[in-house]
């Protein structure tokens, strides 16, 4: 499809602007590692919150989410629990506060704060670096798959080529070009560049999202939606089985549901809840979420930043997602059927943009989605080099390295990680397979050790090391092993096995080695103030400091988490109900949103000011 000159001009102007911002901020970012990776802890919390929200607008995730709304309707609101999407609520309510109190630069550095600098602490430190690098490579591969599919729908030049015997499709070449631009501005500007471009991106995307919602509302009637979807498509509440039969309307979608493995929806939801509680309590993985928390000025600002992320993200994002899904359902079946046996439902988003978005808005939306990809990608490649440079090179190789050398090595680390991630991405099967592996297998290996590190005083560095190592190995070995006996088993059902391996390794590694030094534990407990099983440490702290007040907020935090998950869900389903013509349900969702917002104001927001 040929874009108009107006649309091409908007996209090109955005790309030039991002490069300009990166080079303009490079002097400020290159001052030292703290400036490069954390913005010197001087960036205001609301800019970080907008940046964090913006980073969740990535193209790959948006294409996948449009696809699941298209296929599963309102029940699709549960499927992002795979990540789980409500891990942000745990972070908002208490984890951001606990983490920011550490005053560290990276998740690996935080591990030293928790376990000390003995053998267990050093091994834990190294395994977190390994996990951070593996997860970033996985996400880069995920981004490569999404941006390539997206770009070839709008840019029609044939750029396919062969390099060193490897044939690259146009899809892959477009992905490489966009990734190269993103890598350059991120390397130059560091966290300052990431946040500045993502705030700009958020403003662009919000305008584009609202525009798409208006277009869909004006072009699709409730009657048209009802005529093209099966019974149950507009029902939110799941049964044990999915009970969504597309046979008389779009039979190929039944094959898609079978391939996804979501027919037993009740079992799927139970697995997502199990995985979600552990993964959320574990806290942010060592990537861009954690980096933004550590970049805030105070613990209370870290909590407010995380809350703002959810508040500003879901309604505009789902206006766009729901808009494209209903437009696709009503108008795009003939276009999709032209693909024949190779029908790809992940193309609903780009096809809908091509057919329904007018000149000008199309350029704005494309610039915004490219910005979304670039912003999220940039956040990952800003976070990961901190682990290689600060946590490996500076700590173990050259503690006296100059700031100039460390920043230069950060550039090199970014480049190496991008190249390796691209190599994996070129061989990815689909967005769905990458999504399921990252969310269920890889993060499944992360959960057990990272839950225990918060709540159990006896848990030590050796236990953490063995738990993480067991989880990483299990995330690679267990899924293919299970599929030998259960062909087609999806990763979320394999999660309990990976969790069991990691938990067993964590507990045995802890019990067969000595506890951490009490002095290290007291410093961590007194500064972080977590709740959990900390009685021996708490008693020691209170002997030294009778004025110390232990954390007694578990019940309030649990209540706020439950309210927060409901609050977040109401913002997801409100635009979906509205655009599908379920207006009475939309009003109920609005009421739930207002009610939960009031509860969070009194039971969460009013208390975080005392957390610094």
From TrEMBL:
The chain crosses the membrane at residues 6-25, 45-72, 78-99, 123-144, 164-187, 199-217, 264-285, 306-332, 364-388, 409-428, 434-452, 464-486, 492-512, 558-579, 585-604. It is a multi-pass membrane protein. It comes from the Bacteria. GO terms for cellular component: plasma membrane. It catalyses: L-proline(in) + Na(+)(in) = L-proline(out) + Na(+)(out). Keywords: Cell membrane, Ion transport, Membrane, Sodium, Sodium transport, Symport, Transmembrane, Transmembrane helix, Transport. GO terms for molecular function: L-proline transmembrane transporter activity; proline:sodium symporter activity. It is found in: Cell membrane. InterPro entries: Na/Glc_symporter_sf, Na/solute_symporter, Sodium:Solute_Symporter. GO terms for biological process: proline transport. It holds the Pfam family SSF. Belongs to the sodium:solute symporter (SSF) (TC 2.A.21) family. This is Sodium:solute symporter. It comes from Marinilabilia rubra.
């Amino acid at each position: 499809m040929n874009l108009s000159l107006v649309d091409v001009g908007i996209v090109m102007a955005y790309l030039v602007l991002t490069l300009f911002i990166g080079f303009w901020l490079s002097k400020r970012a290159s001052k030292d590692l703290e400036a490069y990776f954390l913005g010197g802890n001087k960036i205001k919390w609301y800019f970080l919150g907008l940046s964090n929200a913006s980073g969740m607008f990535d193209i790959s995730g948006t294409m996948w989410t449009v696809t699941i709304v298209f296929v599963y309707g309102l029940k699709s609101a549960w499927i992002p629990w795979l990540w789980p999407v409500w891990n942000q609520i745990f972070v908002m309510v208490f984890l951001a506060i606990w983490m920011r109190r550490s005053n560290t630069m990276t998740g690996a550095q935080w591990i030293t704060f928790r376990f000390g600098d003995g053998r267990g602490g050093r091994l834990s430190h190294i395994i977190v670096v390994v996990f951070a690098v593996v997860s970033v490579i996985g996400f880069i591969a995920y981004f490569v798959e999404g941006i390539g599919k997206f770009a070839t729908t709008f840019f029609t030049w044939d750029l396919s080529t062969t390099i060193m015997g490897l044939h690259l499709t146009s899809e892959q070449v477009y992905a490489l070009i966009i990734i190269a631009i993103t890598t350059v501005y991120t390397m130059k500007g560091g966290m300052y560049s990431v946040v500045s471009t993502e705030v700009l991106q958020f403003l662009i995307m919000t305008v584009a999202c609202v525009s798409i919602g208006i277009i869909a509302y004006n072009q699709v009637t409730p009657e048209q939606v009802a005529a093209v979807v099966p019974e149950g498509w507009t029902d939110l509440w799941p049964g044990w089985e999915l009970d969504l039969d597309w046979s008389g309307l779009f039979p190929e979608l039944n094959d898609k549901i079978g391939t996804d493995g979501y027919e037993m929806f009740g079992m799927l939801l139970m697995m997502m809840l199990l995985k979600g509680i552990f993964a959320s309590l574990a806290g942010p993985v060592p990537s861009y979420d954690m980096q933004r928390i550590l970049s805030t000025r105070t613990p209370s600002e870290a909590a407010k930043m995380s809350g703002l992320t959810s508040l500003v993200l879901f309604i505009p994002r789902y206006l766009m997602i729901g808009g494209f899904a209903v437009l696709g359902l009503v108008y795009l079946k003939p276009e999709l059927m032209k693909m024949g046996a190779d029908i790809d439902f992940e193309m609903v988003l780009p096809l809908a943009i091509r057919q329904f978005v007018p000149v000008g808005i199309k350029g704005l939306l494309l610039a915004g989605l490219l910005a979304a990809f670039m912003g999220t990608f940039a956040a990952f490649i800003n976070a990961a080099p901190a682990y290689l440079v600060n946590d490996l090179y500076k700590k173990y190789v050259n503690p006296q390295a100059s700031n100039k050398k460390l920043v230069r090595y950060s550039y090199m680390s970014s480049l190496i990680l991008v190249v390796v991630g691209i190599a994996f991405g070129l061989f990815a099967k689909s967005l769905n397979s990458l999504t399921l592996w990252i969310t269920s297998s890889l993060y499944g290996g992360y959960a057990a050790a990272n839950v225990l590190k918060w709540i159990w005083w006896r848990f030590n560095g050796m236990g953490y090391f063995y738990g993480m190592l067991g989880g990483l190995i299990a995330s690679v070995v267990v899924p293919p092993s299970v599929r030998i006996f259960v062909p087609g088993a999806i990763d979320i059902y394999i999660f309990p096995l990976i969790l069991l391996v990691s938990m067993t390794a964590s507990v045995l590694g802890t019990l067969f080695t000595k506890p951490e030094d009490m002095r290290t534990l007291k410093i961590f407990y007194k500064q972080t103030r977590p709740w959990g099983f900390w009685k021996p440490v708490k008693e020691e702290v209170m002997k030294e400091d009778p004025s110390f007040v232990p954390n007694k907020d578990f019940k309030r935090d649990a209540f706020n988490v439950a309210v927060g998950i409901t609050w977040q869900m109401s913002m997801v389903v409100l635009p979906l109900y509205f655009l599908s013509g379920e207006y009475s349900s939309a009003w109920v969702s609005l009421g739930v949103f207002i009610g939960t917002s009031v509860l969070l104001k009194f039971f969460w927001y009013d208390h975080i000011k005392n957390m610094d």
